[in-house]
Amino acid sequence: MDSKLIGHSLKVLRNEAGISLRELSRMTGTSAAYLVSIEKGYRNTTIAMLSRILKALGTDLATFFAKSSCEPESPVFESKTMKSVNDKHREYRFLLPKRSDMRFEMVHETILPSERDPEWEIHDCDVGGVILSGGPALLEINGIGEWSLKKGDSFYVQAKHKHRLINKGKNKLKQITVMDPPQY
Questions:
Q1: Tell me, what's the pLDDT at 70?
Q2: pLDDT value at position 100?
Q3: ω before 182 within 30° of 0 (cis)?
Q4: Spatial separation of the C-alpha atoms in residues 66 and 82, rounded to whole Å
Q5: Helix and strand totals (H; E) in the chain
Q6: Could you tell me the strand order of the sheet in which 145-149 lies?
Q7: CATH topology of domain 3-59
């Protein structure tokens, strides 16, 4: 999706929810002017900020971008049907479609080495993952600690814990992340 289409879709969602720009600004901790520039397609936003905006609007990234053409009974999901979203530092590829019979959400994430101070994340679900390539990475859980991860290492973060994963290497960091329950 390009920035104009994302912005238009966000504005439609905001209007459908009956939320003013000022209220959304307060809910997301950002300025109304910044939100206007996103809605008009003048500015790209980070995945973390888009996720925060969508959460305030009662939805999430997977729901916002997923339009599955998979049959409910099919256990196979072709890569050509998978949706993805990216910013200048990250790419999220949704490996499973939005379906009522899915008990978890799975995402293939790529984090570029250019992202040195990523935004903190808080999820309403438990998050687990495994580093596929790249690294090392640093997992920080606010108020609990920080841990170094390398290829093959996995992690688990309980719901509501403020955390972030930082690519400390010189190459792309690739990981699979699983969220339970799914956020769609």
A1: 43
A2: 75
A3: no
A4: 8
A5: 5, 9
A6: 145-149, 137-141, 163-167
A7: 434 Repressor (Amino-terminal Domain) (1.10.260)
- The amino acid sitting at 108 is H
Query: What distance, in Å, lies between the first and last C-alpha atoms of the chain?
Result: 19
CA 133 to chain CA centroid, nearest Å: 19
Six-digit token string for 153:
């290492």
Looking at residue 172, its amino acid is: K
* pLDDT for position 43: 84
- Give CA–CA dist 101/55, Å, rounded: 22
**Structure tokens belonging to residue 135:** 């690294």
Successive 10-residue mean pLDDT values, the chain, 184 residues: 82 90 93 91 87 91 65 76 86 86 91 90 94 96 97 97 96 96 75
Rounded CA-CA distance 81/11 in Å is: 26
Which of 63, 97, 65, 104 is closest to 79 using CA atoms? Answer: 97
Q: Cα(68)–Cα(66) distance, rounded to whole angstroms?
A: 6
Query: Domain locations in the chain?
Result: 3-59, 68-180
The two structure tokens encoding residue 103: 């008990």
141 DSSP β-pair partners: 145, 163
Which CATH homologous superfamily contains domain 68-180? Jelly Rolls (2.60.120.10)
